[in-house]
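Hi all, long-time lurker, first post. I run a small reading group and we've been trying to get comfortable going from sequence to structure in the token notation. Rather than ask abstract questions, I figured I'd post a concrete chain and ask someone more experienced to write out its structure so we can walk through it together at our next meeting. Sequence below, copied exactly:
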Amino acid sequence: MAMAYIIFVNPGLLSAPGGAAMDFRAVMAATCVASAIATLLMAFRAN
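-- Answer (accepted) --
Happy to help. Here is the structure in token form:
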């Protein structure tokens, strides 16, 4: 549930006009890729 929450909140914060003003779709894609890599890394490290 936390990952589903952060996938939408992180791009929302970084694409806000007062924030970093980054592209929403690009930040969302980067968040999804980073979370997938971290999940797989943790899965393989924990065996």
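A couple of things your group might point at:
The mean pLDDT is 89.
The chain has two helices and no strands.
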